[in-house]
Design a protein that fits this description.
four-stranded mixed sheet, single chain, 7% strand, 21 strands, 45% helix, five-stranded mixed sheet, 1157 residues, alpha/beta
Length: 1157
């Protein structure tokens, strides 16, 4: 017999260690591991981490096998891993109803349990008796399921289990917006059962989603049906949120050592190397001690000051745990693994030596890793005075199986038994390696031959949608419906993926569905999703944003391909030329560069070989050739579409997959182009007629199915011309002169409500009024009344044939005002139909999201945005620029086009100056529109002015009475010195108003407030006190503290006044930096501002200012001129605020400082 090699002997040593510390505890029936001798339950997360050493040892034996027994050992170890992973699968699959509910509710009551009975896989505590929602635990299970499957283990055994795992993907894919209890099961660090968004959960979910995408769970023995599908947009949402939270861990934890599992092994979820290093340094600086790392600052778990008789902490109690938090050796195992994966041998050596010093020798000298080290109760005061000096004692589980497993795994890797690629076969460790440049492929398609000809005249050669056959072009909402079939399983009562709108990454791939290549148009051109797509300038903006996003976020094999259809709505009003904004965008894309992205335009057929293509095998027909279920007709076929126009809610996802399958069946069967018959062929005329009738019937059936799926512009996606005017119309009267439609929509409009004899509203007369009026505004107002008083589904009985509901009439009116771009009415009707959020609120949120994606720097130090106040400031800005009343400005705001609205918002976010022009569209189109810009007329204008005015004229296409367009801050320079001087007035007041409305504060402001609170009893803002005890609960860097301070400041209604209070607090922070014990008891910040205001008034009066100049803001009593003073300089606000603050707190300051003031 061959002698045992040295490596074999060492491996046998590790095998004994694994058996003695981990495998001896594995339940022989379920395969699960209990937490410890005292805690017999099996935690999902702990079980996954605890089995990693067994998996690694099995891989090491297979690789270093000296003899056959080693291969047998490898197999035995691998099967122990499979048994545990299947045990956890059984625990979760028994809660399949929770997975189904959670997909829609994201409720903590519907979550999978965090721990199970080790012997039976049953639950052990009630839904509300534990912080069960821990998305990182479910995610770490899925991540290692993927890694282990890729390494060759066979864990999933049936398609039912595949469907369940697919639904677990849906369970975790919304992690970026789901507050959970996190890796330490306690949520907010006060341990009061408050869930919060945790970076550790978001990061682990992102890693699991990436690892499972396109993975065959049956391994090499699988087929298309066992492949898991993940939507790339959900992964990127997780990445965006993760990047914005780090290096913080959550709102209540400014740093957490668990982030090591996200920035390094096992998740490798962060792609920005600088952010990885920053987070790592934060952990080392703030959490590392002599025995390991604290979990997070002020962690009371197992400290001598923790009350063992209650789970929760009092908020002010958290200060007691500062500097005596328990230290966990577990985190040094992460540093060892991180060093191995990053190739940092020095780090590996350093932490292995440190870890050896804190291990405890068990029976027969077995090294055991304790759960944590705690300060002895009699040494607490000493540790408070001199942190990290007292010798600590081990407490908790021994061994801590999770840490023991990672210690063994790290040792195996450090000693060369395992290579990084063996424990990470999916290559997650390369996440920070720079990615190759992305070239976005754009295929421009014409809706019709006429549009194709128009484009050709402009030198842009494109195909029509019909000409790209056999490639099929469909709208994004069809792809959403297709994905709602993914993971469906009637036996397990799993409905598949909830209907959600498709992101740009999802629509930038090609799809192989039923042996046909499909491409999907971007979501942003769907006019039914939102009215923004009615504005061509806005379409260009959204395209620019999406292209930029694709360039930075595309991670798939192949290049992204955008299919961009040019429809009739993108033509000018005369229908013979292309909208100038669209044309300019097409030209830039043809030149190869647009929106910061490299572009390659071409035909779809040319992109087939270079694009990313996904085979959606779950849409393949079953054995009978039919995809949809036979019992389909037993169900209500209402689709859960999220379609606001048609008023569908999130009621049911059932069988929308069947509906879309029928649609695809019809599409593939009846829309193939037929060869044209020669004109001389006269035979079989009747047959040809019958064929034509049959084809028409088939296409009409297809149109019906498309409309059931709420596809707009049906004719654009079906290659036929017979449906160009197929939209049913209820024939509300058109406005005779749409150009004269000069009312702006407002619920304030008084409508004369007809009454019957009993004094009740006569709805029949109201409907008759609706039928007879030709004013679009009146039609909208009457429908609004009917909607609120009778409901959306009330049959108006407007026409004899068929029912005509209020919703249908509103939808038709929406289409009509959309065609003439009456933005005020579009928003008004949209607001009625959506019911959820005011249309303008949602519109502003869309723009804010676009700017956050492209210009995140605009939002530094902002934690909450007050949409209502932002809209109010936008109206104030318009009123100021147009010299009009607030009511006129509000009406003007409602009538801005979406692109102008977005432009105005950007100027407010960035603080740039802007100009507004007003144009009244005359009834006689031969007369040029009158334009006034800041009261400077066009008469005698310079060439520069005329150019600007001509440009503005070309932008005025609105049928409404008053339209506005915005331009950048170049107006003042064009109109000479007089306007420039005028524009300086109000400049600082405007800036304070904008910053106050946006909650914008200087960088580091909240940390400075924390320091101020350490030196006084509290800050009072308009009667609301921010007590110093806040600092006993919260640390200076946590988001929770910043949000708390922000909410106190937000009690001040006027933004300018709020901003002066911020400046006053800044002055106090400078005083707090002085080496004194206290600067006062409760400091009333508004009093400091009013003292400064009085000082300012006195000084101005002595300099000869009159009462008109020194007019006061009636709401706050502050002089308007003070609002408009620069912060610095002799008359600057900081000068007066500093004097006022010194006056207010002088009794606490040394006399020398007072003398200096």
């Amino acid at each position: 017999m061959r002698s045992r090699s040295n490596s074999g002997v060492r491996l046998d040593g590790y095998a004994r260690l694994v058996h003695q510390t981990i495998l001896c505890h594995q339940n022989p029936v379920t395969g699960l591991l209990p937490a410890s001798y005292d805690q017999k339950d099996a935690w999902v997360r702990d079980n996954v981490y605890s089995i990693l050493a067994v998996w690694g040892l099995g891989l090491a034996y297979r690789k270093n096998a000296d003899r056959d027994e080693d291969k047998a050992k490898a197999y035995e170890l691998e099967q122990s891993v499979v048994k545990l992973m299947r045990g956890l699968l059984h625990c979760m699959i028994r809660q399949v109803d929770k997975v189904e509910s959670f997909k829609y509710s994201q409720s903590t009551k519907d979550s999978l349990h965090a721990k199970y009975n080790t012997k039976t896989c049953a639950t052990v505590v009630g839904d509300d008796q534990w912080g069960h929602l821990q998305l990182d635990a479910t995610s770490v299970y899925l991540l290692f399921l993927a890694q282990m499957t890729a390494s060759g283990l066979h864990i999933i055994h049936s398609l039912d289990e595949v469907n369940f795992i697919q639904n677990l993907v849906f369970y975790i894919e919304a992690a970026y917006k789901t507050a959970d209890f996190g890796i330490w099961e306690r949520g907010d660090k006060t341990n009061q059962g408050i869930s919060e968004l945790n970076a550790s959960s978001v990061g682990m979910a992102k890693a699991a989603l990436e690892a499972l995408d396109e993975l065959d769970l049956f391994g090499v023995k699988g087929g298309p049906q066992s492949v898991i599908h993940v939507l790339a947009d959900e992964v990127q949402h997780c990445q965006s949120i993760l990047n914005s939270i780090l290096p913080r861990a959550s709102t209540s934890k400014e740093v957490d050592a668990s982030l090591l599992s996200v920035i390094s092994f096992p998740a490798f979820a962060v792609e920005d190397n600088q952010l990885v290093e920053l987070t790592k340094q934060e952990i080392i600086t703030k959490l590392q001690g002599r025995y390991g790392c604290c979990r997070f600052l002020r962690d009371g778990y197992k400290t001598p000051k923790e009350d063992p008789n209650r789970l929760y902490y009092e908020p002010a109690e958290l200060k007691l745990f500062e500097n005596i938090e328990c230290e966990w050796p577990l985190f040094w195992t992460y540093f060892i693994l991180d060093g191995v994966f990053s190739g940092n041998a020095e780090q590996v050596q350093e932490y292995r030596e440190a870890l050896e010093a804190v291990l405890i020798k068990g029976k027969n000298g077995v090294p055991l890793l304790p759960e944590l080290y705690s300060v002895p109760p009699d040494k607490v005061d000493e540790e408070y005075q001199n942190p990290h000096t007292v010798d600590r004692v081990p407490m908790g589980k021994l061994p801590h199986m999770w840490g023991q497993s990672l210690y063994i795994l790290g040792s195996l890797m450090a000693e060369g038994f395992l290579a990084p690629g063996e424990i990470d076969p999916l290559n997650r460790r390369f996440s920070t390696v720079p990615k190759p440049d992305v070239v976005v492929q754009v295929s421009i398609l014409a809706e019709t031959e006429e549009i194709k000809a128009i484009l050709k005249n402009k030198g842009i050669d494109v195909e029509t949608i019909a000409e790209v056959y056999p490639i099929r072009v469909q709208p994004a909402r069809i792809l959403s419906h297709i994905y709602s079939s993914l993971g469906c399983n009637s036996r397990m009562k799993l409905s598949g993926r909830p209907y959600r709108h498709m992101g740009v990454l999802g629509t930038s791939k090609l799809y192989d569905i039923r042996k046909t290549i499909f491409t999907f148009t971007p979501q942003f051109i769907d006019q039914q999703q939102f009215y923004l797509a009615l504005d061509n300038k806005m379409i260009v903006e959204m395209l620019r944003t999406d292209l930029s996003y694709l360039c930075s976020r595309w991670r798939m094999t192949g290049q992204p391909t955008i299919t961009f259809p040019i429809s009739h709505s993108m033509l000018d009003e005369d229908g013979t030329s292309l909208n100038s904004s669209i044309l300019a965008a097409l030209r830039k894309m043809q030149d190869g560069y647009f929106g910061g992205a490299r572009i390659q335009t071409g035909k779809l057929s040319e992109f087939l070989t270079t694009s990313c293509c996904t085979h959606l095998s779950f849409m393949d027909p079953g054995p009978e050739g039919k995809l949809y279920s036979e019992d389909y007709d037993d169900y209500d076929n209402e689709l859960e579409s999220g379609d606001w126009i048609n008023g569908y809610g999130l009621s049911s996802n059932a069988h929308s997959g069947d509906e879309v399958a029928r649609y695809l069946d019809h599409l593939l069967a009846h829309t193939a182009p037929h060869p044209k018959l020669a004109p001389t062929s006269q035979k079989g005329g009747l047959n040809r007629f019958r064929t034509a009738v049959q084809t028409t019937c088939d296409l009409m059936s297809l149109v019906t199915k498309a409309k059931e799926l709420h596809v707009q512009n049906v004719h654009m996606y079906l290659p036929t011309k017979i449906f160009q005017a197929s939209r049913p119309s209820f024939n509300l009267l058109d406005s005779p002169h749409p150009q004269q439609e000069d009312q702006v929509p407002s619920v304030r409009v008084e409508i004369h409500l007809p009454r019957d004899q009993s004094g009740e509203v006569d709805f029949k007369a109201l409907v008759l009024q609706l039928k007879e009026t030709s004013s679009l505004q009146e039609q909208a107002d009457i429908l609004y009344m009917l909607y609120t008083m009778k409901g959306p589904d009330w049959d108006t009985g407007l026409y004899d044939e068929g029912s005509t509901t209020v919703r249908e009439l509103l939808t038709e009116l929406y289409g009509k005002v959309g065609e003439i771009r009456h933005w005020g009415l579009i928003r008004y009707i949209s607001g009625i139909l959506r019911k959820k959020v005011e249309a303008l609120d949602e519109e502003i949120m869309v723009y804010l999201a676009m700017y956050m994606r492209t210009q995140p720097g605009l939002f530094a130090e902002m934690f909450r945005l007050r949409i209502g106040l932002i809209i109010q400031v936008m109206a104030t800005e318009l009123a100021h620029s147009l010299r009009c009343s607030a009511e006129e400005a509000t009406d003007g705001l409602m009538n801005l086009s979406p692109s102008a609205m977005k432009n105005l918002l950007h100027h407010i976010l960035s603080g740039k100056e802007f100009g507004v022009e007003r144009s009244v569209r005359p009834t006689d189109s031969n007369i040029s529109p009158a334009i006034s810009i800041r009261e400077v007329g066009a008469v005698g204008a310079t060439k520069t002015e005329r150019t600007g005015i001509m440009q503005l004229k070309s932008e005025i296409k609105q049928p409404s009475g008053t339209s506005m367009s915005l331009s950048s801050g170049s107006f003042p320079s064009a109109f000479g010195q007089q306007t420039s001087k005028d524009s300086r007035q109000g400049q600082w007041q405007r800036r304070r108003r904008l910053d106050g409305a946006l909650n914008r504060v200087p960088i580091g402001f909240y940390q400075k407030v924390w320091k101020v609170l350490q030196k006084c009893h509290g800050l009072s803002v308009e009667g609301f006190v921010l007590p110093s005890s806040t600092t006993r609960e919260m640390t200076p860097g946590e988001i929770k503290f910043s949000v708390h301070v922000e909410s106190v400041l937000n009690r001040v209604p006027q933004p300018e006044y709020r901003q002066l209070l911020v400046e006053a607090i800044l002055v106090l922070t400078m005083m707090a930096d002085i080496e004194i014990h206290s600067i006062g008891s409760i400091i009333a910040v508004e009093k400091i501002v009013h003292i400064a205001n009085d000082l300012f008034l006195q000084e101005q009066k002595t300099l000869g200012a009159d009462d008109i100049m020194l007019a006061k803001d009636p709401a706050s009593g502050i002089c308007t001129l003070l609002y408009d003073s620069a912060p610095s300089g002799r008359f600057g606000t900081m000068t007066y605020l500093s004097k006022a603050a010194a006056t207010y707190v002088q009794e606490f300051l040394p006399h020398s400082i007072c003398a200096m003031q």
